[in-house]
Predict the 3D structure of the following.
Amino acid sequence: MFDPERKAESLAMDRVRRSLAEAERVVVLTGAGVSVESGVPTFRGEEGLWRSHRPEQLATPAAFARDPRLVWEWYAWRRERVGGCRPNAAHRALARWALSRPGVLIVTQNVDGLHGDAAIEAAGDRAPETAAWPIELHGSLFRVRCTGCGERRPHVAPIDTGSRASLPRCPDCGALLRPDVVWFGEPLEDRTIGRALAAARGCDACLVVGTSAIVHPAASVAVEAAHGGAVLVEVNPDPTPLSPLAGVSLRATAATAVPRLLGGPNEAGPA
Ligand code: OAD
């Protein structure tokens, strides 16, 4: 039987697919929602991390200065939780898409490393820093930064949070290492946000997946793209402040909608 709602949805989907396929330059902005179907919690909403934890006690420079062990415990817990998660169909479709055509830049607010994992999977034998490698605006759970000399390095080994003395220290200068993530009250790295905003200003389409779009300057990436005339496509089960700017808002989950939009095989979800 003819279902007008389904028909309208399928026409909208076709239109979006075409806009994305025809765009020369596309910026993809993702947030915590893209990783939900991998098992990573979001920050806001009913099950969100900020419901049960106070950001100012755990994710600020002052919190780390006051009690580095408490802050490391929280990050060690998150590293452990995320460490067991795999990219889902949305991460994979985005990585394959970015590799299969020129002009795609993935910009993420997530610190879970799942876009990078998907890029490595998709690139196979090629170097991982391919076109599918994301700009990580808020850093990474799996990198550390020295509080003394500022050196950054990858760090995937378990963190011993047993005592202050057991916390990780810089092999160069001996100062405490901290997670290489952006905390509340800290600026984003100029080069990183600058690259994302420049790409947004010059893109023809911007695909926004799974972000509440209330944290700036990250959300400004999509706003700049829309103000520059790019087609804005949003994938989010709920409306956001970006919805009024979006040409199309798909009220669907990332792992369902993104593979359909990008034309890749529709995988069931996380492996
Ligand atoms: P939020 O937790 O604020 O928002 C997650 C969004 O994902 C919401 O809009 C949900 O509706 C949507 N969502 C939920 N499930 C989804 C699914 N399966 N598919 C698609 N979307 C889904 O997370 P962010 O917007 O990423 O910053 O938060 C932005 C920043 O605030 C984070 O990077 C973090 C946080 O404080 C720092 O830590 C600096």
Summary: The longest helix spans residues 4-22. Residues 156 and 181 are 14 Å apart (CA to CA).
